[in-house]
Specification:
The radius of gyration is 22 Å and the shape is elongated. The strands form five sheets. Strands 3, 4, 5, 8, 9 and 10 form a six-stranded mixed beta sheet that branches. Strands 13, 14, 15, 16, 17 and 20 form a six-stranded antiparallel beta sheet that branches. A four-stranded mixed beta sheet has the order 1-12-11-2, with helices on one face. By secondary structure, the chain is an alpha+beta fold. The protein has two domains: about 190 residues, D-amino Acid Aminotransferase, Chain A, domain 1 (2-Layer Sandwich), CATH 3.30.470; about 120 residues, OB fold (Dihydrolipoamide Acetyltransferase, E2P), CATH 2.40.50.140. The longest helix has 12 residues. About 5% of the residues have low confidence. About 20% of the residues lie in helices and about 35% in strands.
């Protein structure tokens, strides 16, 4: 069951609001001793999270179908990088990581408990069944996501809970579970940051393909943090003219654009370095390992902003695991 992106949350009554966790969406399927964890795209995740398979095996119910989110807390934050690191071909590496950085499962829906098939039941019925069942288990690695029918509470989650949340989900209380349909609504966290344009990449015909964005680290070096692209053709000429006078600068003096990787085999590190004079405000969603996880959206130039003030401390603070537990209680 998926969600349609909207700009504002639907107003009550008739809706339940839930945090949209920043992890791996997971369907946990237990049929006796056969246990699998499925991704949203239908891929098997169980082999990558063997510790979670064992947690499920330890439950007394032999038939379960649960909907939730896999997360990994490390230090003072939830780590999306640690989740991605689990998708490794070597079982020995996975086993090592499962001990060093164990995953947790945050549940927000239930489709089956033993002989009780709940897929045709309303969300109101499913949520009550989930809460009753959850009170019967005692496993700190399996948690219950909060839910509220208060729009005020949903707004607080959206504004105040930091990078651990990807937004807020709204579900109709009278809806049955609808796999494959965008029957839910979601409002995503969108944040802005002022970044130095440390360089840019060109298109094949010489136009501006993307702006490369940087923030100053504690050593006053400019680190690459992400990019902004998707400019309309009509804007590329004006953009090239704006960048031209700044070419020949030092570019990125800290972490710089790299070469090919297994994700982008055709990518190289070549870029046009610029001086550190241009500041741009961009809209982003999430930060992972001090990088924007996705491409950003250009918002506006910031000629009023000093480049040296473009530092990492402006990025949203992530939710610490202790705060996560308090939110879930």
């Amino acid at each position: 069951m998926e969600a349609q992106l909207v700009e504002t949350l639907p107003e009550p009554p008739g809706w339940q609001y839930e945090p949209k966790w920043d992890g791996f969406r997971a369907i946990v399927d237990r049929d006796g001793e056969d246990i699998e964890i499925w991704s949203k795209s239908g891929k098997r995740l169980g082999r990558y999270f063997p510790e979670m398979v064992e947690h499920v095996r330890g439950l007394s119910q032999k038939h379960l179908l649960l909907d939730g989110e896999l997360v990994i807390p490390i230090g003072d934050h939830l780590s999306f990088d640690a989740l991605q690191a689990r998708l490794h071909p070597a079982p020995s590496r996975i086993a090592k990581l499962s001990e060093e950085t164990p995953a947790q499962l945050i549940l927000f829906d239930v489709l089956r408990i033993d002989s009780n098939d709940l897929r045709d039941q309303t969300l109101t019925v499913r949520r009550a069944a989930l809460e009753t069942w959850y009170r019967s288990i005692a496993n700190p690695s399996i948690m219950l996501s909060p839910a509220s029918q208060s729009l005020e509470q949903a707004t607080i989650w959206l504004k105040e809970t930091g990078g651990a949340l990807d937004g807020v989900i709204a579900k109709a209380l009278d809806d049955t579970y609808q796999p494959g349909n965008r029957a839910m609504r979601k409002v995503k966290q969108l944040r802005t940051a002022d970044c130095v344009v440390g360089g840019y990449r060109k298109t094949e015909n010489g136009g501006v393909a993307s702006l490369l964005l940087g923030l100053y680290n504690d050593a006053d070096e400019l680190d690459l943090i992400g990019f902004s692209s998707g400019f309309a053709a009509v804007d590329r000429e004006a953009l090239a003219k704006a960048l031209k006078p700044h070419e020949g600068g030092p570019g990125f003096t800290g972490k710089a654009p790299g070469g090919p990787s297994r994700w982008s085999p055709n990518k190289n590190g070549d870029y046009i370095p610029l001086d550190h004079e241009l500041v741009v405000e961009v809209i982003y969603d999430q930060v992972t390992a001090r990088r924007f996880r996705h491409g950003t959206r250009f918002h506006r130039w910031r000629p009023d902003k000093l480049p040296e003030n473009c530092t990492f401390d402006q990025l949203v603070r992530e939710l610490a695991p202790a705060e996560l537990i308090e939110l879930i209680r």
